[in-house]
Structures are given as C-alpha cells and as structure tokens.
Design goal:
This protein has about 140 residues and is an alpha+beta fold. The protein contains 1 helix and 10 strands. Among the domains are: about 40 residues, no CATH class; about 60 residues, Roll (SH3 type barrels).
C-alpha cells in the first residue's frame, strides 16, 4: 500500500467519523423525551424531531404547551442585591425597627453596611433576625 492509498483511506475514515450524526431520544426516567430534554408525562411536546418548534408553538419559546387553566398566575421575584453604604457619623446606633428605641447594635464611621430595604428615612442593614435599622441621614452611598 503506497502513501497515496493510505492518505485516501485515512481521509475516508475521518469523514466517516466526523459525518452527520443522528440524535437519539433521551432516556427519561420520570418523564418523556422532548427535543434535547425531558418533560412531564402530562405535557405535550411541541418540538419536532429536528429540534425546531412547531407552528402552533412559535409564539411559545419554551416549546411546552401552555396550561389550559390560568387561575393562578406565578410571578417571578426579582433578585435585588443590597446596596453598599458607608457610615458618615462618628457612631450610630442600630434600632430593632424604624422609629423604635430598642438598640440592637452600633456602627462606626467609615464602616460599610449593606442596605437591603428602605422605609421612609430608615434603612434595614441586616438580612437576618434580629433586624437592624439605621437612619439614612447617617449613611452615604458608596
């Protein structure tokens, strides 16, 4: 076998392995295959074998049929990250609630705090219990 025959046969073998492959359906344990994933048995797959959405579900980008009943509407909650503030006064007490006299902690000048929520002129600076509230006039946005 000369070099020319060897190169041709290796080229053909390479094309054979790199050629188009068929996608087999997933082995879904608790559901049924739909496109590249699995869906519940009660849902209807709106994706054809090529992976494209059918004409009926062109507006539904998820590829799943919309539920027939729409009594309850699920709303996504937005993830709000806390803002970073700096304490501007020499020392400030943290209260248990806005307009409360219960002192739960204190912060010093230059200390950074996370503000999770604001209520009127107050800012909640802890995300756990007990809550700590500081007046906004003692804080400056970093």
């Amino acid at each position: 076998m000369n070099i020319k025959d060897y190169l041709i046969s290796s080229f053909i073998v390479t094309l054979f392995f790199l050629g188009p492959t068929t996608v087999n359906a997933r082995n879904c344990i608790k559901g049924k295959p739909c496109g590249k994933g699995c869906i519940a048995l009660t849902k209807q797959c709106r994706i054809d074998n090529s992976g494209a959405l059918s004409k009926k579900s062109a507006s539904n980008k998820t590829g799943y049929a919309a539920p027939s009943h729409t009594r309850s509407i699920l709303r996504k909650s937005k993830l709000r990250l806390p803002k970073v503030y700096t304490v501007t006064t020499t020392s400030v007490n943290a209260n248990g609630a806005p307009y409360s006299s219960t002192i739960t902690g204190h912060y010093r000048e230059g200390q950074s705090v996370f503000v999770y929520e604001t209520f009127e002129s107050w800012a909640r600076v802890t995300n756990m219990m007990p809550e700590e509230w500081v007046e906004l006039k003692h804080l400056k946005l970093k």
